[in-house]
Amino acid sequence: MPKFRGAVLREPGLPRPYTESRPLEIVELELPDPGPGELLVKIAAASLCRSDLSVVTGARVWPLPMVIGHEAAGRVEAVGEGVAGVGPGDDVVLVYLPQCGTCVRCRGAEPWLCETGGAANGKGELITGGTRLTHEGEALHHHMGLAAFAEYALVAEQSAVKVPAGLAPGDTCVFGCAVLCGGGTALNTAAIEEGQSAAVVGLGAVGLSAVLGARAAGADRVFAIDLLPAKLAPARELGATDVMVAGENAVAGLREATAGGVDHAIEASGTLEGFELAASLVRRGGKVTTLGLPGPGVAHSLQLAPLVVSGIDIQGSYLGSCATQQDVPRFIELYREGRFPATALVSHHIRLDDINEALDRLADGEALRQVIDFD
Ligand SMILES: [Zn+2]
Ligand SMILES: [Zn+2]
Predict the structure, then answer these.
(1) pLDDT tens, 18-72?
(2) From the CA of 86, how far away is ligand 1's center (Å)?
(3) Residue 108 Cα, ligand 2 centroid: separation in angstroms?
(4) Superfamily of domain 179-318
(5) How far does the centroid of ligand 2 lie from the alpha carbon of residue 360, in Å?
(6) Taking Cα atoms as reference points, which of 324, 51, 338, 371 lies closest to residue 184?
(7) Pick from 130, 217, 295, 348: most CB atoms within 10 A?
(8) pLDDT band for position 141 (cuts 50, 70, 90)
(9) What does the domain layout of the chain look like in residue ranges?
């Protein structure tokens, strides 16, 4: 295939502003034809997630150089030997954890913890083994099996989920990370039930997806909380019944309004303060579910006696406890019914060349999802 363009990270931790240090360089890339179990996907839209920023800052260490990007939608151009269920011309949403189906976690019905997919991601390789991307003969790593900030991606078939034709890729791309993590946490990990109450702390695209998930689960009261007042209006539009600026008043107000706290608190800010706030909002016997990814050194010390006496349940949620091949179609169906208006999770549409500017907006907290349009 001909050369195509994509965004490579060579050195993490460059100084702000990124419009000047330009951590992501747009270069010409090459890929071979798809091998067994692999697909070549023409990317239509890809969006920036906070996890991309943690690669750029070096907060999370990845093998470099790497083509980054892990939330995208596109169309299958070609398939390798043995690929069934998806073929050329099919629209797909890409997912950032390929679930192998055969490891101990996949066999135990916890594919969101897939050991094989996690190990391949950690090495910056495909689950089918090794890397495929090159730039002038130099091998490049693949971010989370996708390397989606590029015009084409070569991915394992487990990294793609077929979706109905004709949907807007600028909407569907956010289903690969934001919707699975936020919506999945509400519906799967927390397993909010009809008539329960929930609070979501941190109203980025993932937190807003958790608000949508809580509503889809039938929660009758959903509190949406953020430090920034500007983040509250979108949450209300998406179905939050109560919105609050984080702080002392939020805790007191919520406790009073719910007779002692909510059934579920979801932490989606990726900060220690957010976690502590979430933990202070649940009732006795309530559940705290945390999905944010703070820096590796961030720790919380737990007072054990109050934990026992209050009977609170604290759990982590990775990939929203989703089985991607089942859960992406499930969320896409909610989207088609108008119950998961993903358009509201997107604040900017940009071009690939403007990606460093987008990193600045992301770091400044000035954006929800920023979608790179390739067509
Ligand atoms: Zn992400
Ligand atoms: Zn597995």
Answers:
(1) 999 999 999 999 999 999 999 999 999 999 999 999 999 998 889 999 999 999 9
(2) 24
(3) 9
(4) NAD(P)-binding Rossmann-like Domain (3.40.50.720)
(5) 35
(6) 324
(7) 217
(8) very high
(9) 4-176+341-373, 179-318
CA nearest to 315, candidates 213, 227, 191, 201: 191
Q: What pLDDT sits at residue 1?
A: 84
Which residues have beta carbons under 5 A from ligand 2 (an ion)? 100, 103, 106, 114, 116
- Number of residues assigned to the chain: 375
Exposed, middle or buried by CB within 10 Å (0-12, 13-18, 19+), for 85? exposed
Minimum-distance ligand to the CA of 324?
2
pTM above 0.90, yes or no: yes
* Ligand 2 centroid from CA 119, angstroms: 10
Residue 87: partners with Cβ closer than 8 Å, 6 or more residues away:
76, 79
Q: What is the CATH number of domain 4-176+341-373?
A: 3.90.180.10
Is 4-176+341-373's fold the same as 179-318's?
A: no
Whether 292 shows a pLDDT value over 80: the answer reads yes
